[in-house]
Hints:
Blueprint: E1 14-18, H1 22-28, H2 33-54, E2 58-65, H3 73-89, H4 91-96, E3 99-104, H5 112-125, E4 131-139, H6 141-157, H7 168-172, E5 185-188, E6 207-210, H8 220-231, H9 241-246
Parallel strand pairs: 1-2, 1-5, 2-4, 3-4, 5-6
Helix pairs in contact: 1-2, 2-3
Amino acid sequence: MTDISTKDKALPKHVAIIMDGNGRWAKNKGKIRTFGHKAGVESVRSAVQFAATKGIHALTLFAFSSENWNRPKDEVSVLLELFNFVLNNEVKKLHKNNIKLKVVGDISRFDDKLKAKIARAEKLTENNDALVLNIAANYGGRWDITHAAKLMAQKAMSGELDIENVGEKEFDEFTAFAGLPELDLLIRTGGDSRVSNFMLWQCAYAELYFTDTLWPDFDSTEFDKALDDFASRQRRFGLTGEQVDVA
């Protein structure tokens, strides 16, 4: 692959990451799966810092899917503990670095204490503009689409929305990532090549990047490899390569 300097690199405005491989990373070291989740927190810090430094507008991290509730209870408990840890210990650092935090997903299943922490964190950082950090928690792409459809239907039934005037742009305004740049790059660590019900609506024209690197080993060097790969691609959005070259 041709080396592309950061200065000349076509950077994505919105990057999403499926942070996979924590359990296998721990197993490789003879540890229990939850050890890997804890190690993955450092990779989260690294990714956020890297994205902010590069001038990426939005970074979305898939922290806890709506399907993760089906994992062993002790693992679910650790995932929620880590979520609480981040809200307790990282939010002030995010605020100091001008980073806006948003928690995206169906938070109704979380207890009141956790929901209050989320609200306080979002309120504290709401005016920051160096980077929008979206933490997808109890999130699923199908949930996002159906939830948007329900909200839109409610508006239509109340007479606030003319359903005949609804197109893709209008529908997008009801989704969980409304108001953000379109998703440019979706990264998945851990070796699997699937999107696992993540940002299904948003990844329609996103570039997909799959790496065998396990999440706790995904550092700034690995992130930069993904950006190099993104910059090397021709994004056609349904056009021919010749049309894009002329434009």
